[in-house]
Write a structure and sequence with these properties.
Layout: E1 7-11, H1 15-27, E2 30-34, H2 43-48, E3 54-56, E4 69-72, H3 81-89, E5 93-94, H4 96-107, E6 113-118, H5 123-135, E7 140-144, E8 162-166, H6 169-172, E9 182-185, H7 193-196, H8 199-207, E10 218-222, H9 226-230, E11 239-244, E12 252-256, E13 261-265, E14 270-274, H10 282-297, H11 302-311, E15 320-325, E16 328-332, H12 339-347, E17 353-358, H13 370-376, E18 377-383, H14 387-390
Parallel strand pairs: 1-2, 1-4, 2-3, 4-5, 6-8, 6-9, 7-8, 9-10, 10-11, 11-12, 17-18
Antiparallel strand pairs: 12-13, 13-14, 15-16
Helix pairs in contact: 5-10
């Protein structure tokens, strides 16, 4: 219970922990922040800190181990030396997502309708579309990995608010009580192995989304994804709601590509939603179908869903059309940060591709790209730290 904590330590001063530090200070908690970067590199964040917040920069001492609770920045892994020491001392480890949920539950006594979306790829597009649909229906807050932290909106939320949250595997690692009314996993492929250390740990983190759900809640999951189906037994109490863009589903939702409509047949809903969209790629059909499922489980009328999809232009940096010059089409897909999302992008085009590839290596093999590069790519420009590994 959060009432038992008096001094709270924040490991890392990213966006979510900055908002959280100031919120906790206003509630009267003693707050200590430790940040690895030197002060000159995070001056903007330091300048925004509440004056009562104690902090250190340029490295981590062990002062945070004197706190009752540690809230880690999501990107800080469990094999970090301070987290390992904290666990040995029995100090609880949260992320901002978990702590904000408990603040709502125990301090403000508010119970909004929470929809949490995760997956290796497609989270931001799905969350953006779903939040647009919800905003056209009733009061909605969109937050999480998509940009603004959950805690920023804590004073704007009431029992009627729909909260649409993009959640990452980093945030789901240490779920304790977080319980979405609707949880959705879009897909699971290799990613973030440098953080999670194994594919099994990564999958376990994703399925933590359903850890606290009961039979009043929904688990919306992709029937076409083999990793999801393999571990579906991990969903114990939720109402499982499958969706597919590849095959007919008798109890769930499937995309009729011939007529471009999502057909839902289940004890929770029977409806048909027509799809008119400018988005390209098979992956975006999955994103649209998942958003439709969540929308209908929220009982949003089909006309609102259809009109919102029709007007939805997609998300920046995700297969985003830039310009056409001398018959060459330039596409910005810089948010494709793993092998699978690059595969999806390559599958979306039939013309010869000039591919700019690289960036940060995440520990996954690049060999799955080879047949598609041979088939579709005319030239490759390698960039970033992964250049030598790919080459």
């Amino acid at each position: 219970m959060i009432e038992t904590y008096k001094k709270i330590g924040l490991l890392g001063l990213g966006i979510s922990n900055l908002y959280l530090a100031n919120y906790l200070a206003k509630l009267g908690y003693k707050v200590f922040v430790t940040e690895e970067l030197h002060k000159e590199k995070i001056k903007k964040q330091i300048d925004k800190l509440d004056p009562t917040v104690e902090y250190e920069c340029g490295g981590h001492s062990e002062k945070i181990l004197n706190c009752d609770l540690i809230i880690r920045s999501p990107s800080i892994p469990y094999h970090h030396f301070l987290i390992e020491q904290a666990i040995k001392k029995g100090i609880p480890i949260f992320t901002e997502l978990e702590f904000t949920y408990q603040i709502l539950k125990y301090k403000t006594k508010k119970h909004p309708i929470i929809v949490a979306i995760t997956g290796t790829n497609g989270k931001t597009t799905t969350v953006s579309l779903l939040s647009n649909i919800c905003q056209n229906y009733k009061k909605t807050v969109v937050c999480g990995n998509i940009g603004e932290p959950f805690v920023k909106f804590i004073n704007d939320i009431d029992n009627e608010t729909i909260v649409v949250i993009e959640v990452s595997s980093y945030q789901l690692e240490d779920i304790i009580e977080f319980k979405p009314d609707i949880g959705c996993i879009l897909n699971i492929t290799e990613d973030h192995l440098e953080h999670h250390k194994s594919m099994q740990n990564y999958i376990n983190a994703k399925f933590n989304l359903f850890k606290n759900q009961d039979n009043n809640n929904f688990a919306v999951v992709n029937y076409d994804d083999e990793n999801i189906k393999k571990f579906i037994h991990r969903i114990e109490k939720s109402n499982i709601f499958f969706f597919s863009t590849e095959t007919y589903i008798s109890n769930g939702a499937w995309l009729d590509k011939k007529n471009m409509q999502v057909i839902i047949n289940s004890k929770f809903d029977n409806s048909c939603v027509k799809i008119e969209t400018s988005l390209v790629g098979e992956h975006n059909l999955q994103n649209l179908t998942a958003a439709v499922c969540c929308s209908r489980l929220l009982k949003i009328p089909t006309n609102i869903i259809e009109e919102t999809i029709k007007n939805f232009k997609g998300v920046e940096h995700r297969l985003e059309f830039v310009r056409k010059l001398n018959d060459v089409i330039f596409i910005n897909d810089s948010k494709s940060t793993n092998v699978n999302s690059t595969l999806v992008a390559l599958k979306s085009f039939s013309k010869p591709i000039h591919l700019i590839l690289g960036g940060r290596d995440k520990g996954s093999p690049y060999t799955p790209l080879i047949p598609f590069i041979k088939e579709k790519v005319k030239s490759i420009l390698l960039i970033g730290e992964a250049t030598e590994i790919i080459y």
